[in-house]
Amino acid sequence: MFVVTFVRHGETECNVANIIQSHTPGQLTERGVSMAERLGIHLADEKFTRIYSSDLKRCHDTTLNILKQSSHHVPEKEGYSVEELLVLDEMLRERSCGPLELQPGEELAKIMRETGLKFPYMPIPGGEPYPDFKQRTAKFFNMLCKLADVAENEENVLVVTHGGWLMGLLDHLVDCPHDIEDFDESLVHLRPHNTATTKLVIHKHDYSKSNEGSKRKVTVKHVHDISHLPDHLQKEA
């Protein structure tokens, strides 16, 4: 079994101020740190075999605060910290908003009103085109699928990324060639709360001729779950 838990980063100062972060680093608030720590406690007994994070500071810091709560060392390497598994990956960055970086969120709201499309789906002049962004999420997901195919043992993967990135990934799952089980497509357009988790099981695909034409199976366990957060952290600041 190849299990992947995707996480949106903790609350940031720009989230609270409604400032467009895009590819800027982002600084976690005290609430954001608490969110990550709560999630870490919730996942403390999970033995992760692979850990990925966006290389942007808000995700990296979220990941480290999650891992501080881990009760496990690196598998079969006693004496090493679980942080040694961490890979920082630019593919997990939020969609680039180009010249709108660090501008008031109202600038994106104007585009949404004009186009009738929500973030991250609408066009952003000077920003990363949405089809390119969606393809970036697909590329990372396809990499995970390849790892699932060659895995000799069970794998448990943690991926810490951004709200728009997660929405792009779910949008990819809607029209990807895989057999997606237990997926409520109405959730695709919901922006995840800070530290919300989405959990998938990627099944190994049989490429034999006898199985030709069959689809890879992906099971959705949950989408944008925040049950690890107490009520006061589930509310927007």
Automatic annotation (TrEMBL):
<dbReference type="GO" id="GO:0004331">
    <property type="term" value="F:fructose-2,6-bisphosphate 2-phosphatase activity"/>
</dbReference>
<dbReference type="InterPro" id="IPR051695">
    <property type="entry name" value="Phosphoglycerate_Mutase"/>
</dbReference>
<protein>
    <submittedName>
        <fullName>Fructose-2,6-bisphosphatase TIGAR</fullName>
    </submittedName>
</protein>
<dbReference type="GO" id="GO:0045820">
    <property type="term" value="P:negative regulation of glycolytic process"/>
</dbReference>
<keyword id="KW-0378">Hydrolase</keyword>
<dbReference type="GO" id="GO:0005829">
    <property type="term" value="C:cytosol"/>
</dbReference>
<dbReference type="GO" id="GO:0043456">
    <property type="term" value="P:regulation of pentose-phosphate shunt"/>
</dbReference>
<dbReference type="InterPro" id="IPR013078">
    <property type="entry name" value="His_Pase_superF_clade-1"/>
</dbReference>
<dbReference type="InterPro" id="IPR029033">
    <property type="entry name" value="His_PPase_superfam"/>
</dbReference>
<dbReference type="Pfam" id="PF00300">
    <property type="entry name" value="His_Phos_1"/>
</dbReference>
<feature type="binding site">
    <location>
        <begin position="8"/>
        <end position="15"/>
    </location>
    <ligand>
        <name>substrate</name>
    </ligand>
</feature>
<feature type="binding site">
    <location>
        <position position="58"/>
    </location>
    <ligand>
        <name>substrate</name>
    </ligand>
</feature>
